[in-house]
Amino acid sequence: MKFKGDFHVHTCLSPCADVTMVPNEMARRFSGCGVDWVGITDHNSCGNVRVFENVFSRYGIKVLPGIEIQSVEEVHVLAYFPSVTIAEEFSKIIKSHLPDVKNDPETLGYQLLVDEADHFIGMEEKILSVSVNLDLNEIFELVRKFDGLFIYAHVDRAFGVLKQLGFIPKDPAFDAIECMGKTDNFECTIFKSSDAHHLDQINSPKVEIEAPTRDFDGFKIAIEKGQVFPIENDRRSSY
Predict the structure, then answer these.
(1) 3.40.50.2020, 2.60.200.30, 1.10.12.10, 3.20.20.140: which CATH number matches 2-230?
(2) How many other CB atoms sit within 10 Å of the CB of residue 186?
(3) Which residues, at least 6 apart from 85, have a Cβ–Cβ distance to it below 8 Å?
(4) How far, in Å, CA of 68 to CA of 41, rounded?
(5) Sign of the C-alpha dihedral, residues 205, 207, 212, 218?
(6) 8 contacts 35 by C-beta, under 8 angstroms
(7) What's the pLDDT tens digit per position in 182-213?
(8) What is the value of pTM for the model shown?
(9) Spatial distance between the Cα atoms of 41 and 166, rounded to a whole number of angstroms
(10) Residue 36 to residues 2, 82, 139: CA-CA distances in angstroms?
């Protein structure tokens, strides 16, 4: 089966995302441009994933539970999990590895928790826009402990592994990479995304994915078989 996806998007919980990134507004945008599978990947937290899964399901959109982690090397990694419950348990551990520093929303951005009616119900107080005290190998081992997938985010942009390290290390192993520019030089599964932080960055599907089922297991099979095909003719989001 073929699905149209965007597997790296942020909600109002990410401090660098707009406060308009709430579930019903985002679902309407995705539905309107033909996206039927979305990865929710806030910075260092899965606090909004459950609400978004519930809301998106009403629009016929499947949510892939995820998170974008910043390693001690300041490399961004996308991790995806079999269920929201597993993602939330993983998120608790990630939170324990963040510095014990309170976020300054006026300076660094609001970290908003939201309900299914798009109402703000609280704020994450601990700063999310920093590195955890785990290196890439430690993050990989933790992701695998929770049966997750480990994917390097926007390798060719700020906080991407190529920008930070200058190369993609063989260890730890990785399942795929996300590349925003040319993909000719990579011999692995590659996907593109909007990395949307604002509503106007939700404008088209970013990949077509061939998977037996529209769930984590289907996504994993598509990654393993390289059946993720970037859609090139779209407007690029700014990061």
Answers:
(1) 3.20.20.140
(2) 14
(3) none
(4) 5
(5) negative
(6) no
(7) 766 788 999 999 999 999 999 999 999 999 99
(8) 0.95
(9) 24
(10) 10, 18, 29
